[in-house]
Amino acid sequence: MAKTPEICETCGCIGNPVTRTKGSIWIELALWLLFCFPGIIYSIWRLTSREKVCGHCGGKMISVQTPRGQQLMQTYHQPRNQ
Questions:
Q1: Residue 18: which of 46, 54, 48 has the closest Cα?
Q2: How distant is the alpha carbon of residue 45 from its chain centre?
Q3: pTM (2 d.p.)
């Protein structure tokens, strides 16, 4: 099944989003090495806070099939009359 394209709310770029994980791998590693319990909590937080973002600007991506997506398509990608 093909993925539906998504559009960035910030820059209007159309494409597939990339996944961004919040936090730092180095802090996570340090917490695991020094304190096991905070390391577990930090790891769980990082895994649950992943989000899909634009690969160009890091903005939020939404489906072009939603009403907001259609509005953004008209704003950023309307045909130019010459």
A1: 54
A2: 16
A3: 0.65
What b/e sequence results for 5-39 when a residue is b if at least 16 CB atoms lie within 10 Å of its CB, and e otherwise? ebbbbeebbbeebeeeeeeeeeebeebeeeeeeeb
Q: What is the C-alpha to C-alpha distance for residues 32 and 55, in angstroms, rounded to an integer?
A: 30
Q: Radius of gyration (Cα) for the chain, nearest Å? A: 18
Q: What is the per-residue pLDDT across 4-42, written as a single tens digit (0 to 9) for each?
A: 789 999 988 998 889 999 888 999 899 888 887 888 899
pLDDT, tens digit, for every residue of 36-75? Answer: 788 889 999 999 998 889 988 988 999 989 999 999 988 8
Nearest to 23 by CA among 58, 47, 56: 47
* Contact call for residues 13 and 52 (beta carbons, < 8 A): no
